[in-house]
Amino acid sequence: MKQTPSPNFNDRAAGAAIAYLVLHYTGMRTAQDALVRMCDPTAQVSAHYMIDEDGSVYQLVDESRRAWHAGESFWRGETDLNSLSIGVELVNKGHEFGYTPFPAVQIAGLKTLLNDIMARHALPPEALLAHSDIAPLRKEDPGELFPWQELATEGFGLWPMPTPEDRQSSTEADIITMLGNAGYDTRTPESISASRTAFLRRYHPERLGFGFDNETTARLRAQLRVMR
User: Which residues is 72 bridged to in the sheet?
Assistant: First the structure.
């Protein structure tokens, strides 16, 4: 692991315990560009870790400190996700500069890091979040090409298969309630719409741009069934 200290951090909120791990992509042209930005005090942005495309891991902020990666965010009623989470950036140009699949060696490095962090902090699988989950009005990373299902098979995140009971009919009000129960922001019409897109991006990317169908709703209901 390469130590690349960033000055962009502060203390976690009093009494805050690490409860989540948030995945991002860097969304910049190169890994070096991302490191420079996250170490620039005028940028006021950082993460605890960054994983390059070759699997190299950089630590920028100690886990005990509050890195500045989540920004304005919401999950399960919490709005200071920086105090409650560890942030991991994956080097990827992102949607602005040429979004591409994440290399296998990079994902292997991520799995090793996740295994360590989640074990040390006793985080359950559902503690693994996307930046787009917690900030759906602003963010879309790590995006629809990220291999969420692959990670879930190894205990990082959730990807339950819907049962016949999960496929029961649902009203629009049911879907909004389920999104809120899962943790998404459903406080306004705008956040509801953005949260629907965030769920599709992560759990049913084939439907991205088309909206929920019966299978999407079944996957949402399955999530709630297995969450702790």
Answer: none
168 to 84, 199, 208, 219: CA distances (angstroms): 35, 19, 22, 11
Side chain identity, residue 165? E
CA proximity to 128, closest of 104, 155, 165:
155
pLDDT tens digits, 53-112: 999 999 999 999 999 999 999 999 999 999 999 999 999 999 999 999 999 999 999 999
How many angstroms separate the CA atoms of 5 and 164, rounded? 50
SS (H, E, C) 85-142: EEEEEECCCHHHHCCCCCCHHHHHHHHHHHHHHHHHCCCCHHHEEEHHHHCCCCCCCC
Instruction: Spell out the domain ranges in the chain.
Output: 2-152, 164-226
What the block records as the tokens of 160 is 């339950």
User: Each residue of 126-176: pLDDT tens digit?
Assistant: 999 999 999 999 999 999 999 999 999 999 999 999 999 999 999 999 999
User: Is 144 among the catalytic positions?
Assistant: no
Among the listed residues 63, 72, 89, 96, the single catalytic one is: 89
Q: What is the pTM of this model?
A: 0.97
Q: From CA 74, how far away is CA 195, in angstroms rounded?
A: 11
∠ CA 73-77-82, rounded to 5°: 40
**Domain 2-152, classified CATH 3.40.120.10, yes or no:** no
Is it true that the peptide bond before 7 is cis, omega within 30 degrees of 0? no
